[in-house]
Q: What sequence folds into this?
């Protein structure tokens, strides 16, 4: 009996100590991890959408609270005037959540470009969403609030689905439509924030 | 019988060098050595876990009841592994993306648990530290060598620098799974021939 009590106590103390230690490490590294994720995961997507801007969209960003979660918005300037905004939405694909970065022209509400940030789709099939130029460019120029057009061809929209990856193509389209909803509902707040970057 | 601390360190570099002599920890050895950088990164992460867990296990060896020693070792090892994972995310995110799932899998790397069970739980603090450091450095060197061979033949680069000039046609097979077995087998063979002399 005494042996058992000793075992329980040892394990409990050890587990509690490790838990505390890890919590401390996690808190002290969380800022840096956030920065690193921004640089490696969202960064490449943003830069591929906004390849021709005159500022650093990763530095010029703001955060809005949308439906209880914080969403980061990245501002792209041309000739010093902020013209583009990009933000990330998610939709579930074939193998889990797909993160899609959507770039929008602020004045016209047209899609400027999209790119996939994170996914766990099948390599060689759904994973082509990341590289398939024809699929990605088929979003460009469509008004982001046009839910009819932002659907794959089979569903009556304008998007060129990736061959053999209908589920992934639908998920990306859904993520872009969600971005459209966010843009529509929070247009005035987004514009107000973006204006602070002008000049 | 008593070995000096220097001997405990040195044995990890040749006599008990993990993937070749002990033939342990092969899963990460084969999977992540597609480039020299990945191999060394994985080796250093494992070394950190190995040294820290060896030290802590050695310090606590009188306190941990022998019936639950394995769960205790696993808690200690898992704590350091998660710590490494967080630190890598914070400071070397690119490497973290390359190594991916193999970082959390250090928890079940038999080298780490093996050294805790076979060495640190029976020895004093300093020899345990030396043992962990020696095995860790040996492991890092092995993965570095394996990674360099596979990267130079498979992609024509070492640490991302071209080594063979522009006309080299990469031997792509070497950076895929079969190349890992071939390279490891050949290295094992060379080490056995050298060891016999």
A:
């Amino acid at each position: 009996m005494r042996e058992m009590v000793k075992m329980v106590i040892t394990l409990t103390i050890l587990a509690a100590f490790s838990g505390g230690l890890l919590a401390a490490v996690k808190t002290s590294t969380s800022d840096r991890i956030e920065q690193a994720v921004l640089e490696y995961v969202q960064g490449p997507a943003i830069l591929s959408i906004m390849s021709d801007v005159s500022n650093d969209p990763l530095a010029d960003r703001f955060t809005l609270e949308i439906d209880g979660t914080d969403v980061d918005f990245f501002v792209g300037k041309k000739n010093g005037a902020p013209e583009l905004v990009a933000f990330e939405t998610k939709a579930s694909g074939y193998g889990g959540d797909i993160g899609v970065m959507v770039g929008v022209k602020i004045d016209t509400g047209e899609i400027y470009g999209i790119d996939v940030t994170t996914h766990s789709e099948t390599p060689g099939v759904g994973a082509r969403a990341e590289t398939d130029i024809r699929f990605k460019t088929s979003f460009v120029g469509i008004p982001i609030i046009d839910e009819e057009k932002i659907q794959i061809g089979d569903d009556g929209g304008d998007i060129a689905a990736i061959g053999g990856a209908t589920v992934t193509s639908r998920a990306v389209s859904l993520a872009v439509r969600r971005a459209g909803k966010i843009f529509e509902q929070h247009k005035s707040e987004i514009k107000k924030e973006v204006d602070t970057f002008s000049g | 019988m008593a070995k000096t601390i220097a001997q405990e360190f040195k044995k990890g570099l040749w006599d008990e060098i993990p993937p070749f002599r002990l033939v342990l920890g092969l899963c990460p050895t084969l999977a992540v050595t597609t480039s020299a950088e990945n191999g060394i990164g994985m080796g250093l992460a494992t070394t950190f876990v190995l040294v820290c867990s060896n030290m802590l296990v050695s310090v606590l060896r009188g306190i941990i009841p022998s019936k639950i020693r394995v769960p205790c070792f696993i808690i200690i090892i898992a704590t350091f592994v998660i710590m490494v994972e967080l630190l890598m995310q914070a400071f070397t995110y690119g490497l973290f993306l390359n190594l991916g799932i193999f970082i959390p899998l250090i928890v079940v790397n038999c080298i780490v648990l093996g050294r805790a069970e076979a060495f640190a739980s029976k020895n004093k603090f300093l020899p345990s530290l030396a043992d962990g450091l020696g095995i860790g450095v040996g492991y890092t060197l092995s993965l570095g060598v394996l990674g360099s061979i596979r990267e130079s033949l498979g992609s024509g680069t070492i640490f991302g620098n071209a080594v063979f000039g522009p006309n080299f046609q990469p031997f792509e097979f070497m950076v895929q799974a079969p190349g890992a077995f071939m390279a490891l087998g050949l290295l094992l063979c060379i080490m056995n021939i050298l060891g016999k002399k």
Notes: Chain A has four helices and five strands.
